[in-house]
Amino acid sequence: MKVLLFGDASNYHRALAEGLRELGHEVTVASDGSGWMNTERDIDISRTKGSILSGGLLWLKLQSLMMSRLRGYDIVHISNPIFVSQRPSRNAILFNQLKRYNGRIFLTVLGTDTPYIEMCVDPGSPCKYNEWMVNGSPTGYNIHKNDILQAWQRDPLKSHCEKIYSNVDGAVSVLYEYDIACRRILPDPKVAYAGIPIDTASIRKIDLPDNIKKVKLFLGMHRDRKLEKGTDRILVAAKRVVEKHPDKCTLDIVENIPYKEYLERLQHSHVVLDQLYSYTPATNALLAMAMGLNTVSGGEEEFYRFIQEDTLRPVINAVPDDDALVRILEEVVTHPELIKPRGAAGREFVVKHNDKMIVAKRFVDFWLRDVGEV
Fold first, then answer.
1. Is 164's pLDDT higher than 80?
2. How many CB atoms lie within 10 A of CB 154?
3. CB half-sphere exposure, 84, CA atoms < 13 A
4. Local confidence band at 167 (pLDDT 50, 70, 90 cut-offs)
5. Helix H or strand E encompassing 317
6. How far apart are CA 278 and CA 180, in angstroms?
7. Cα dihedral across residues 187, 124, 126, 7: positive or negative
């Protein structure tokens, strides 16, 4: 099949493209490179920085591309209802054009949108915590970014999301939390869970020592997403642990560096501190696990049950409780003998559940479900 992956976040569509290509499909990725990460893409749809005309210039470019390189595909996947850096009305126009000039169009549920927000703030939400609410109380991110929360719950974003969800042929979720949100508004046959694709074959497993003298903690921070990911709180907890156990651990902090450089820095650590509010290990955590490193991230029991994993429990589950988080990190640095076997289990977990070929096949199986070949 000929496939267009439009938009990206955290390198998802690019990694998925590799798996689909190895399955024999022709794939084009059109994205802005996930912003500062500058990930690879076939068609660049970045806005020019620092120009008041950037929006208009990008729109003209997109309209030109629509007449040439963005048509004739069997399958189109957009990365979000706002899949390109334009206002909702223009995203709606692009969506209609993609639908007109191509075959079936799907949504890859990669990030925040109205259904996810409404699931997060619902008092009856099955997730007891997320980046917006913890046990019924607003988080720091909610307080400081309430305008974002409100924007997704009001027009034009709310109505735009409703139109996208009503007109896609289906949605593929990448996290447990996103899957729950999708199924609240779409019938089960129109939703599939795929997980996050990792190119495990290209990732060298790091041979951790049996006896780690000093545990190397690593925290990669996105300058604009500290409150969202909870890395502000993780940083405080990690510093407390290092101050308490300076002979047992060190902390390496990086912020907003290019993706390739980030991966290089990552490989010199033992334990990667990922994020606080997730039930599910996401891209950063899975990459570290594929390297055989330990990760402090989302690893709730609900997630393991969801993916039907009864044996492997490699994620050091982070919880949004500052004192508990300190105790969790202390447990890690005071029991370094567990790091190597936990790292091996993490690698096994990613190969089993998130290898790019496994994830790509889930996409293809969903596309072909009940419809035969496209």
1. yes
2. 11
3. 28
4. very high
5. strand 316-317
6. 13
7. positive
